[in-house]
Amino acid sequence: MTMDLKNGSTISDINATTAPINAKVDGDNSITNAATVTTIEPNGHRPSSTTAKLKSPPPEQESHIFRRSLIIASFWLLVLCLGLPIWWKTTTIYRANLPLDQMTDWADGKLCSPVFPIRIVIETPSLNEQETESLISITQHALDAMPDFPSHRLRLEANSQTALEDARLPHGHENNALVIRLTPGDVASFKPSSSPHAHLPIFEGTYPSNLKPTPETKSLQLATYIAAQLRQTFAEEQAIMSYFLATSTIASDQRPQVSHDRIDESLSKRMTRSMKYSGTYHLTFSLFTSGSTPSSWDIDSAIDRYMRPVLDMLKPIHNFTIDTQVQLYAIPGVQSQVLTKEDLSSFINAAEWPLSPSIGGAPTINFVIYMGNQTIGLDSGEETSQSWLVPQWGSVYLLSPPAATHVSAEFLKQPVLTFASHLLSLLGTPQSGSLPMRLSTLTRVRSVDMLLRASSSLGSLARLSLALPSISIPSRVADGVAKSIHHLELACTNLGSTESLKHARIAETEAERAFFEKSMVGQLYFPDEHKVAVYLPLLGPVGVPLLMGLLTEFKAWKMRKQQKAKVS
């Protein structure tokens, strides 16, 4: 018997549909490998049900598992054994080995003490050998007892032909000797020799007859007087040494004990206005005029007559190249008749006064003669001057125009002599003493200046290398450091001579070149954040698939291991 339903289905139809499910029910009321899925038509008509069988996937073959593991391992081996070494080799920053401890010791002043051995030859034609030896012995004892004279080791010796010849040698520990000629006189005096052709620093001293040294009196009064005069002679040089040491990186416990009153304001200004040391300077002599005359000048003859002797004496320390020029209708920046200090800064207008640039990389010192009716007013308001020195630049001389169109060498005498004096000031030459004595002092102070500059550069490079471990240090930097240290050792060994200045200059040049190496300077502005920003877009697409594949294979291996454990 059948019963009609609203949707047209019959009981027999439902029974027919559920018959397969009932056939699958066993005695334990459990269902195996079968499920009933009932679906209702979207139109609300006759519901239907479908039976789907859920089968487990077949077990994976061992060969497939091995092949997949081998593929993953091959990718990782390729990355680890080939990719990483290539990346490490191509991105590793090369850092040459530097003697950091030695560089730091040079900067701290532990390897060289700037003490100058200076030999002083004493000529005593009116004394016998015994009296001379007694005078030298007592004077040497007085010099050694000076408490605030640490940068000089003065050594006295009697006059001999060998001593004078050795003093003229351009090498050795104790060249640039000072010669003292002692003769009897009415009063005691001690002054530089007036001989213009002396190639050595020579001082002429006189002593009254009551101070004549004898073995009985031990020459005490005359020896004390000579020691005091020598101390005064080297006082300015000692002050300059104190200035260089005070402004250097040498540790305070390594410096000679100097008095701070030696470093006065005037000395600091003099050192500031002098130019940085260079082995070669380019001198430019310029004639500027506001009109069409004068149009020529005999500058070459004027330089040869009045300036060449000074340049020749400076040859052991500096080399010079010279050029000249004439500029017509050159208008200065200030038109006042009397120039004040405020006007001097704008008097030279680079746009109106074209000056020759540096030639060959050497620093240029400008000497300008302006033909006009202007003068320079001094602080007093009444006196005027015709020249002024521009710190670290050169000198300007205001000269009234001559009647002729040609300027003769005699007319240029005073300007050129003024330029020679200003040149010595710009080079840092001391102001006291004769010119040979001043140049001898200039050699020593420049040696110390270069030695301290080179040592400071080495110390800065060592600190930079330690502070930035990621900075590149090319091999040429290590070579420059080695050369600099080698020449520093030679400069310290021959301290006080022209050879010391030569080696100190080379050491300073090599140290500066090593510190300002272009490839190193670029690394200073490449922080680690830039590296992360560069590598992340490259490593992300490559590293994520490799890592996920490795994790998936590890999970599958772990699951297979657990299944084997259950079966066993």
Automatic annotation (TrEMBL):
Its membrane topology: Multi-pass membrane protein
Cellular component GO terms, alphabetical: GPI-anchor transamidase complex
GO process terms (BP): attachment of GPI anchor to protein; GPI anchor biosynthetic process
Positions with biased composition (Polar residues): 40-53
Principal place of residence: endoplasmic reticulum
InterPro entries: PtdIno-glycan_biosynth_class_S
Pfam families, per the entry: PIG-S (PF10510)
Location in or out of the cell: Endoplasmic reticulum membrane
Transmembrane segments: 70-88, 532-551
Pathway named in the protein's UniProt entry: Glycolipid biosynthesis; glycosylphosphatidylinositol-anchor biosynthesis
Region (Disordered): 40-60
Record's keyword terms, sorted: Endoplasmic reticulum, Glycoprotein, GPI-anchor biosynthesis, Membrane, Transmembrane, Transmembrane helix
Family: Belongs to the PIGS family.
Protein name: GPI transamidase component PIG-S
Native species: Xylaria multiplex
Phylogenetic lineage: Eukaryota, Fungi, Dikarya, Ascomycota, Pezizomycotina
